Amino acid sequence: MKARKAETVGAACGVGAYVLWGAFPAFFGLLGPAGSVEILAHRVVWTLALMFVVLAVSGRLRSLRGLSVRTWLLVTAASTAIAVNWGTYIYGVTSDRVVETALGYFINPLVSVLLGVVIFRERLVPAQIVALALAAVAVIVITVDYGHPPYIALTLAASFALYGLCKKVVPLDPRTSLTAEGIVAAPVAVGYLVFLALTGAGTFLGFGPGHTLLLMAAGPVTALPLLLFGAAAQRVPLRTLGMLQYLTPALQMAWGVAVLHEDMPASRWIGFALIWVALAIFSTDALVRVRRERRNTEPSQAPVQ
């Protein structure tokens, strides 16, 4: 009963995390007239400030002490990857290309598989080969539709996949890791905000208290879904989170199409449809293999002779 309750709570946390991520276009669209780089800098600074409070309340500030050079190098790699991801996403939203950002997160799982093959020499099963082939065709179709490759989508998918690889090898819990990543990025972010203030190009204090509070809110808006995701990951199987992850790009795409009325010609719908078929094949294969592995590892129920 306790395990079932924990899994229910975890699923709710997972849904909450992915729904909040799916609502990001609505939030970041409110931060104009700040530019995408200024928004990114505020996001880094206020997320770090909040995470320091979270670590202090949970008594985990000591976990930042005595980290090895190797750990800091891995944290720096993760911080760079997520900064590129955040910055690209903010640029996509503020330039009214929300549908393309959604495409990036739809193809992210497939890019992660491709990186596993390239970096870790993992072997592909037939279903994964088919899914990757369909994804490649989809990117070609969308490239023809746009007249150029979907740079925002590809950058988002690649940077987040690289971030995931870094997080696999960083020997820190998620809260400590996120704080350490902020420590690495904060000097650049603070330096840029000081430069904007000195040159009069910043928007933090010049557009009313509402704008100031919205920029500060980038911290909790960033940290809350990450903390919910961490709680979910501890309570529910990864396959459940794998299925839930598609909530985010689905909601983002719905916002771009239904609210922002971004163009979606038939050729673009065909490209997205190919991606969805690829994801269906990929996800079904993953579920089948997980169930097969579970059956193979379950102890025999035959009576002892």
UniProtKB/TrEMBL annotation:
Protein name: EamA family transporter RarD
Subcellular location: Cell membrane
PANTHER family reported in the protein's UniProt record: ACYL-MALONYL CONDENSING ENZYME-RELATED, SOLUTE CARRIER FAMILY 35 MEMBER G2-RELATED
Primary location group: membrane
Keywords per UniProt: Cell membrane, Membrane, Transmembrane, Transmembrane helix, Transport
Pfam family, one: EamA
Positions of the EamA domain: 10-143
Recorded family membership: Belongs to the EamA transporter family.
Topological type in the membrane: Multi-pass membrane protein
Transmembrane segments: 9-28, 40-59, 71-91, 103-120, 127-144, 150-170, 182-207, 213-231, 243-260, 266-288
Primary gene name: rarD
Organism whose genome encodes this protein: Rhodococcus jostii
